[in-house]
Amino acid sequence: MYIYAALLLAFMLGPLLIVVPMSLTSGTSLTFPTPGYSWRWFRELADDPRWLSSFVNSVLIASSVTLLSSVLGIPAAMALAWTKFPGKRVIYAIIAAPLVVPVVIVGVAAFSFFSALGMVGNKLSIILTHTALAVPVMLTTVMASLSNFDRTLVRAAASLGAGPLLIFFRVVLPLIAPGVVSGAIIAFIISFDEVVVASFLSTGEERTLPRMIFSGVRESISPAIASAAVLLVLFSAILLILIGWLQSRTSKSRAS
Q: Are the C-beta atoms of residues 187 and 69 closer than 8 Å to each other?
């Protein structure tokens, strides 16, 4: 069993770990094993304004997607989890459709739609499309949190005169916060790592970091690409560790 787990981890992490020494190479090409080690290509990233600009674009877009998917996903999850109405399953299937539709189809559709509006190369077009991809995840995590929510607390708060907004922010949101935060982090990662839609919709100065890496692979094989990939993986790994910590904390609180 342990051998199987070790082989699985090696299969999944091997390609990622090989990128690490390649990012520290002292040479000028992506080769393994490397001729020597240097921080040269990380300094190249810091000195090149295109990489910094693409990183800032990725952070701005991912932050906007996180906020927008939270605003849309949380009320939708509460409506689907707590109310009964005709067509509920159909609506849930429509919202969750981006999870099963190939991303390249989403990219082509988004490009056709936003090019007709003259919005290709605009951050807003990327934000809206990434939000469509992230909302189903936010919806799923919040609905999972709401499945264990004691609704008598809502009725008790209402009987004491609390309005809907006060009940949401003082009663509901604190209790489902772990699910909301987990969904928000996953939504951020979905947008921050996404490259297919960004390839269709971002141009020039609006390029995101994954789009910049993809362009670098096609146009010039530089070790700076490996350095950017390592930073991208580290950033995503930190966010995933945070999700694991939140889930562990939620499990402990439920057990107690």
A: yes
CA distance 176 to 178: 6
Please check the confidence at residue 127 and state whether its pLDDT lies above 80.
Answer: yes
The pLDDT tens digits for 141-163 are 999 888 888 888 888 988 888 88
* Percent of the chain with pLDDT strictly greater than 70: 96
CA–CA gap between residue 65 and residue 193 (Å, rounded): 12
Q: Across the strands, what pairs with 88?
A: none
Residue 203, SS3 per DSSP: coil
- Tell me the pTM: 0.80
Residue 251 confidence (pLDDT) above 70: no
Cα gap 254→76, rounded to integer Å: 24
For the range 49-55, what are the long-range contacts, defined as Cβ-Cβ under 8 Å and sequence gap of 24 or more? 50/207, 50/212, 51/209, 51/212, 51/224, 51/228, 53/205, 53/207, 54/207, 54/208, 54/209, 54/211, 54/212, 55/209
**CA dist., res. 91 & res. 84, Å (int):** 12
Burial tier of 132 (Cβ tally within 10 Å: 0-12, 13-18, 19+): buried
